[in-house]
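Human: Note token order:
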Amino acid sequence: MPASGQVTISVYDQNGSASYTFTDYLPAGTHSFRFHSGNALVYFVHAVWRSQSRVLQLVSTGWESKRGSSLRYLGQTGNGPLLRNDVSTKSYFYFSPGDTLLYLGYASGYIAGFTGVPTTDTIHTFIFGVGHPCLQNPLLSYGGQLYQTVQIGTQCWMRENLNIGTMVISANTGSAHSDCSNNGIIEKYCYNNEAANCSVYGGLYDWDEMTGYTGGAGVQGICPPGWHIPTDAEWCTLTKYLDLSVNCNGWSWSGTNAGGKMKESGFAHWHAPNTAATNLSGFTALGAGFRDNIGFFDGLKLDAYFWSSSEYALTLSIYRELFCSYAQVNRYHLNKNTGFSVRCLRD
């Protein structure tokens, strides 16, 4: 190549199916690849550099069939160091019906991924650079439940609301109180006192229950080992990463579209209009509603509230709110007996 640039090498079989693809940004120079066909077939190699492309025809005699098939990048020859080895092969593995599989795709330094329970042959589309799973923790098993994760900037978040503990019944008494107690058992509220709502939207937690009755910004609380309750400053890091116009010092709605980038799109878990909901961040916030500090539930599919581990006063703590009709994010503080959703953040 006379200059550096994005290079894509694709190998197609005689039926037009793409067997292997290599994509990377390479420096100027001569680069070598090795292709083992493994079958007596005709192949076509399509090479693209910037706006230029070339197509070569390869005829395999099949004598390498015992070696299997692969496309391997050997590196830069002549001037320049050996950059890397890329091996792309078709392989098979066994799994049982109902198993959850993790799909990860890599391209040009980006990672994209999702989980699924395959039942038939399916073509999947990877969207790179947006909302991909955390590389070190793509899936998190905790309390008998499997959680997806999402990398947003430098932070690794749970992609789903925490749902750990035993459901307690919330009683509407007309005065601020908690129906949870410091009894060594993790306790949660489920919207309208219906366990099925916890299965969809996650649990709602008092601040003291969430922090494990220890208090303090950044505590592990009810999160799994290696994770913690995000602080007010860490929520600021998230929302400012998505929208630089967010005000992390005010007590109000601010910014332009950070909330839209955090909300799940569509109307399965949000009421219309679900303004600007793109879920571009992959945070996948649901309209889980809340448990008021006097014991009643409200806001299902209208609001999403998330506790921070940072206190504002003895009985008040700081939270973030998303709303179905707003694209912004709200920062405020409420009574610790209020039941909000919880997201854990990796240490």
The chain has four helices and 22 strands. Residues 79-90 have pLDDT under 50 and may be disordered. The radius of gyration is 25 Å.
